[in-house]
Amino acid sequence: METMTPQKPSGTTCPPPTRWGICSAGKISHDFLVALRTLPAEEHLAVAVAARDLSRAQQYAQLHGVARAYGSYEELARDPEVDVVYVGTVNPQHLPDTLLFLRARKAVLVEKPMGISAREAKEMAAAAREAGVFLMEGFWTRFFPAWKRLKALVDEGALGECRVLQGALAFPLRSVERVREPSLAGGALLDLGGYALQMASALLGRGCPPLRLRAEGCLHPSGVDETVTVTLQYEGGKQAAMTVSMDAKMPGGVVLGGTRGWVEIPSHLNCPTELIWEGKREVFPLPPPAEPLNFPNSTGLRYEAQHVRECLLKGLTESPVMPLAESELIAEMMDEARRQVGAVGPGGTAP
Amino acid sequence: METMTPQKPSGTTCPPPTRWGICSAGKISHDFLVALRTLPAEEHLAVAVAARDLSRAQQYAQLHGVARAYGSYEELARDPEVDVVYVGTVNPQHLPDTLLFLRARKAVLVEKPMGISAREAKEMAAAAREAGVFLMEGFWTRFFPAWKRLKALVDEGALGECRVLQGALAFPLRSVERVREPSLAGGALLDLGGYALQMASALLGRGCPPLRLRAEGCLHPSGVDETVTVTLQYEGGKQAAMTVSMDAKMPGGVVLGGTRGWVEIPSHLNCPTELIWEGKREVFPLPPPAEPLNFPNSTGLRYEAQHVRECLLKGLTESPVMPLAESELIAEMMDEARRQVGAVGPGGTAP
């Protein structure tokens, strides 16, 4: 279960709070700040927020009680009181922004996708390894209590041998510029597909590549991928079929079938708060947000923030739950899926 | 909604009962007989049951109150009081048995798959058309009240434009000889796949072929297909991804996502008794069976029996809901899917 405070030997002083810097004043950064505020202030403290537009950074600083606002990411990188930076910029900026902070020896939690291609993901991972600085891709899913419960059922063999993973994550996002535009690395795969692929990787592949990946889909008129099903075949007859779409409303559920039983996340496979096991619904409620959220269940970003703190307190340079090698693998799978459907990105069609 | 009695002008006499002959004394025939008994006897009457083994036919006749038992299908075909034959034999027998009854000018309701290949399905459809005799493949799904409710929501545009269909039907059937053996035309696709494909055909294709069909899967050591995902791309960016498996337990649910909303069948997509629409569960309970059933929800076979009666009373030679051309199309899709995964059937690999 979730440990609310890092373990420490009795009699020692409490470890200091983890001091967060926030890179960008976009919608997801807002939600991340709200999520941080659901955690004890003696453990998590947002100390600075930076945006290209200083006034937006100032708005966020005021709203969320952050001490310092910067009009450039470079200033944030130079702030000596920042331990770790949350990078919440648009997809094509994840690489340059992450490199900026890694070079300043700041730990980084970067929103998914870690890069818009495997080449970018590898460059970021290499930079982190070389610098010996913590880097993690923000697959928050893996830190939700509902996910941990599902994972524990799998690991203790409650389902027998896991065989089939099937789910669909879809939102009507055609009107959202960020998702629609090739120049912003839009498309259903880069926006939603990573969630599906990381789930298959965690549950069926356990970090190993699939034997085969097949993607079938159709494109938006802009050239980005609109609806895509990725089928993954793993060793031992294990198969995942995950559909993502920016053109439909769906509950976002996923079901994992084993030889002895199944477990289902009825909605929001990317940020689950409930699951169904042996016909019974188990609920893992989120703390209420202090401010309205932009995205569903966003106070659940607290769990990945807690995990990052735990890693940093242990002196780790990468997460054992979401390691860099798996981010690289997921980026490779994403490249291949986008290539197969002919998706167009900032540099033309996918590699 | 379901009409329990065929419409007739007031003042006329009631139409006579539909007199059913049952071909085979297997598990599904048992369930079909139980289902018939949930309907008014003045409308549906099982008058004869035939099996290769007379004693089994006699057992069924006694258990279900059927007047005559035969030790051969030929005798059933000659029974002048049989209006329509339910063919519940194993998959490779569907063709010869159906042809036998069609040639005897008996209407036929044949269990799915109509044939074990498109060639067989076409031969059966041609024989029915030539004889001018009613033939329908037993896709009972399409006659369930829950399915009709879902279809009505789609047809009235409640979901907006339908875009994504995704579901998985899976049972641990590796130990079942009928499903495991190539000689019996086993495999997940022929056993379960038709349900998935007919659903995509009804909801997205509306009887038209998909633009593309892609199948990805793995084989059982016997050579039959074990777990398969079929992805179907239809005109207008509509996509279905349906997984079937004989090697996992899954709830068997399906979700249809449109541009404005989604509707979900949480379990048993092949014989649904509930659906979720706008977050609310709607339940369509089945009548209780008079005898224990072999398969889930089998009293729901009553709905297809009612539909057959309605067709016969109208003098139709095929069903407008499950027409022969669509059975041929589904058989072609099944052939293609089995060919792509390299499934082995009675005559070697799929055509």
UniProtKB/TrEMBL annotation, chains A, B:
Listed GO biological process terms: D-xylose catabolic process
Gfo/Idh/MocA-like oxidoreductase N-terminal domain location: 19-139
UniProt cross-references to SUPFAM superfamilies, sorted A to Z: Glyceraldehyde-3-phosphate dehydrogenase-like, C-terminal domain, NAD(P)-binding Rossmann-fold domains
Its EC number(s): 1.1.1.179, 1.3.1.20
InterPro entries found in the cross-reference section: Gfo/Idh/MocA-like_OxRdtase_N, Gfo/Idh/MocA_domain, GFO_IDH_MocA-like_dom, NAD(P)-bd_dom_sf
Keyword Oxidoreductase: yes
Gene3D superfamilies in UniProt: Dihydrodipicolinate Reductase, domain 2 (3.30.360.10), NAD(P)-binding Rossmann-like Domain (3.40.50.720)
Record field: catalytic activity: (1R,2R)-1,2-dihydrobenzene-1,2-diol + NADP(+) = catechol + NADPH + H(+); D-xylose + NADP(+) = D-xylono-1,5-lactone + NADPH + H(+)
Superkingdom of the source species: Eukaryota
The family this protein is said to belong to: Belongs to the Gfo/Idh/MocA family.
Protein name: Trans-1,2-dihydrobenzene-1,2-diol dehydrogenase
Keyword terms: Oxidoreductase
GO molecular function list: D-xylose 1-dehydrogenase (NADP+) activity; nucleotide binding; trans-1,2-dihydrobenzene-1,2-diol dehydrogenase activity
